[in-house]
Amino acid sequence: MKSSILRVETVRGDKYEKYLLKCKKELDKWFGVSVDIPRVLFVQSRKEYDKIVGYKTEAWQVGNSGNGVIYILDPKIYTKESDHKDIKRFWLVLKHEYVHLYWHQMTASWNPRWLNEGLACYLAGQEKKAPSQEVVIDVRKYFGHGGMFVYGLGYFWVNYLVKKFGKTKLLNLIKSVDADVTNKKFEAKFKRIYGFGLDKKSLARIMN
Ligand SMILES: [Zn+2]
Description:
Blueprint: E1 8-10, H1 15-31, E2 39-43, H2 46-53, E3 63-66, E4 69-73, H3 88-107, H4 113-124, H5 133-136, H6 149-165, H7 167-176, H8 183-194, H9 200-207
Parallel strand pairs: 2-4
Antiparallel strand pairs: 1-2, 3-4
Helix pairs in contact: 1-3, 3-4, 4-6, 6-7, 7-8
The chain binds zinc ion.
C-alpha cells in the first residue's frame, strides 16, 4: 500500500491541543480514569478519509478514533467535504472521538454500540433528537450495529439513565463491559444494575 496517499498533519501545542486538554480535565473527572491526549490527524479530503477507514463513508461521517489517534476531516475542508454546515460541530466531533478513547481504554470493546455512541454524543454535548419510540425500544438491535439511528437512540438512553438513576450506576455498567461482552452478558449486568431488561416490552413500559 502506498502510505504517501495519506496526507495527514499532526498538530501540537496549539488551539487543538489546548481544547483537548480542557476536554481531558473534564473527562478524567467524569470517568475517574486518565486517558492521554490523543494525536490528531487532519484528513485532507473525503477520498483520503475513505482510504483510512477502509470503506466508502457517508457525508455525515467526519471522524474516527483508535489506539490513541483521532482521524478527523481538516477544519479547512470540514464543511466542504461533509454535510455538516456548521464548523462549530467540528469541536464537538473532536470531543466525541476523545470520549471513545476513554470508553475503549475502560472496556477494550466497541460494543454495545448504542451505549458507546450514546455516551460519546452525551458527553460531547451533541444533543440529538430522539427517534420514534419504536426505534428507541429496539435497543438490542444496536448492540453491534451502527448507522444513523444509533446516535439518537444512544443519546436518548444515556441521557435517560443519567437523569433518572445518576452517573454512578452508568459508570458501573460501563466498567462491567469487557472484550468478551455479548448482548446476553451485557443485558444481565444491565438488569442487575437497573432492575429492568432491554427487551422491547420492558423498555416501552418504563417509557410510558
Ligand atoms: Zn462515535
